[in-house]
Specification:
mainly alpha, 9 helices
Length: 170
């Protein structure tokens, strides 16, 4: 669950400054204005997906047991997470054009969100009164489904496709 979180966090972080960092290129060429954000986000996503595959392969060589029949769910949830990262990257890069200091606030906000999302701990360790709040975090749900894909071999369900459609709409 940690590697997909890094995919999300770094994609958002790199996308924030993409428009401002490429402002002269956008002004002087006929380059579509969304390309710098897409390139910043997708390059990070591809690097992290390759790293995730290498880590899973290495863990398999070391004897970790994965349920490989959950790969369709894994692909679906990683696609939804990547689309979420791209949409957040677009949003924050546009906000950063108006309010330059957004980068200063996004990094600590992502750090807080990291600890509020059950990545380093299972959701069952969250106290009962707060468990519903923690479970309502959409990123926690995506990360949990990624964990379920290889941990239990879950197959995609209707709610997983709804999450992908919502990510596409974003």
């Amino acid at each position: 669950a940690l590697w997909p979180w890094f995919l999300l966090q770094e994609s958002i972080s790199r996308s924030i400054g993409a428009l401002r960092g490429n402002a002269t290129l956008i002004r002087k060429t006929a380059l579509p204005r969304d390309y710098p954000v897409v390139v910043a986000c997708l390059s990070t996503i591809l690097i992290h997906l390759a790293g995730y595959a290498v880590v899973l392969f290495g863990l398999t060589l070391l004897g970790a047991q994965f349920h490989w029949d959950g790969v369709p769910l894994l692909i679906l949830m990683l696609a939804a997470l990547s689309l979420l990262a791209l949409s957040a990257g677009f949003l924050f890069s546009l906000v950063q054009l108006v309010w330059r200091d957004i980068e200063i606030f996004i990094q600590p906000a992502l750090n807080v969100l990291f600890y509020l999302t059950p990545i380093l701990y299972p959701l069952q360790l969250v106290p009962e009164p707060l468990r519903d709040v923690a479970a309502s975090n959409p990123i926690a749900w995506l990360i949990g489904r990624i964990r379920d894909a290889l941990g239990t071999g879950s197959l995609p369900g209707t709610l997983d496709f709804v999450a992908l459609v919502l990510s596409v709409c974003m």
